[in-house]
Amino acid sequence: MLRIPDKGKAKDQVLAELAAFGTKDLDTKGGGTWAYVYDHGLADVDEVGKQAYMMYLSQNGLDPTVYPSLLRLETELASMAASHLGGDEHVVGNFTSGGTESLILAVKTARDWARAKKPHIKKPEMILPTTAHAAFHKAGKYLGVEIVLVPVDPQTFKADIAATEAAITENTILLVGSAVSYAHGVTDPIAELGQLALKNNILLHVDGCIGGFMLPYYKQLGVEITPFDFSVPGVTSMSMDWHKYAYCPKGASVVLYKNKDLRRYQIFACANWTGYTIINNAIQSSKSGGPMAAAWAVLNHIGQEGYLEITRRTLEATQKIITGVEAIDGLEVMGKPELCLVAFSSDTINVFEVIDEMKLRGWYVQPQLRYPGSKENIHLTVTGVSLERCEAMLADLAQCVEVARPKGCPNWDELGAGFADFDPAKIEPDDIMALMAGAGVDPANLPERMAEINGLLNAMNPALREVVLTGFLNDMFGPVA
Ligand SMILES: *Cc1c(COP(=O)(O)O)cnc(C)c1O
Hints:
Layout: H1 11-21, H2 45-55, H3 68-84, E1 92-96, H4 99-117, E2 125-129, H5 134-143, E3 146-150, H6 161-167, E4 172-178, H7 190-200, E5 203-207, H8 215-220, E6 237-241, E7 253-257, H9 260-263, E8 268-270, E9 278-280, H10 290-326, E10 332-333, E11 341-345, H11 351-360, E12 366-368, E13 377-381, H12 386-404, H13 412-417, H14 429-438, H15 451-459, H16 462-476
Parallel strand pairs: 2-3, 2-4, 4-5, 5-6
Antiparallel strand pairs: 1-7, 6-7, 8-9, 10-11, 11-13, 12-13
Helix pairs in contact: 2-10, 3-10, 4-5, 10-12, 11-12, 11-15, 14-16
The chain binds pyridoxal-5'-phosphate.
Pyridoxal-5'-phosphate is lined by residues 98-100, 103, 133, 135, 178, 182, 207, 209-210, 241, 253.
């Protein structure tokens, strides 16, 4: 097992070792990576974020009474978020470490609101369109809120209002809509969801983690957008990630509530131990002031005009990509993307082969597995630098499709039938590793080509996938020799 070195190493040596670890990482700059990272393409922005981050690195957000700077940063960020999202002077919110934390808090707030206002509910439920982000599932599982999944419209990939209404029971506490959904980049019919929430006296969270920041700029550019923010009656909370399309360093999101009466259910206080009294807005307790300072600095540095300009380029790139993808024989854009997230699928080509071919040419594009109502597909996160690279990317995509075409597309249902004997509840870790080894996968040494393993996962049903991936991750993070 690895031990902390007895003698400390010199500064230069430590930093050089650290830098060397990153050689196999995906590029975070330059427009070759179409997922995970958000590149604005502007000079200075990263430097502003880094310097601000370092300036507040050591301040501790544990206690807002001892760092007035952090209190100010957090309230200013929440206020800017509220005005950005159509909020009035009653809207309040808090800074969080990311979309997941924002969503867990929104679900916790709804659960505790219901405990106070609807004490007859013993088994609270939230209704999720199948397109709602996985973080809601995490929240439900962590917090004991049952998840009721409703299918979305198979053409538009938007929440189905009739199905949602039919799923409401007296245990329902929360409805969820996305603006936009990650997978297909479309906004759910928030106004209709709001009417359902009002009619049934339940809460409605709009997940604007990825779309909330940019949609207002799309509107300014004359694009017709589905109303989604606090101006829509019935919306009670929203989330928006600074570390996505606001181009702030990672660890930055915000969760907002219609008013303080609702937000109070988010706050955690504990005086029931022998130590210092705890009052926390969010999940983390001790935390660096860095992410908050960096977010504040980047927003103030880019400004509305800067963001509008980035959005203009992103919109243009997205339009070129949609046209370009549809021009490639065998590829089809899924739904009608309303922002800059584009998913495309194929009936005739194995998209996982295309992804591997793209990687050989220096492009990282993200696989999304099939799910009832949504075919396996390739997902592109378009950003501020994509405009400069989208023609080159499309040219390579067309080539990669031609390489993959002769191999055809597997019959996923038939392959899936091969897993019929695996009961996710009974499968043992050894079975999982044997399965993986059969596909040439070693958790300690991932292969360059992922088509095999992506195909295997794609053929499995979601419950089996979850068990297999859990075993896989558990193995991946073992002790280091
Ligand atoms: C990214 C995302 C999240 C989760 O955010 P993290 O910052 O990755 O925790 C939630 N909802 C949507 C729509 C997202 O795109």
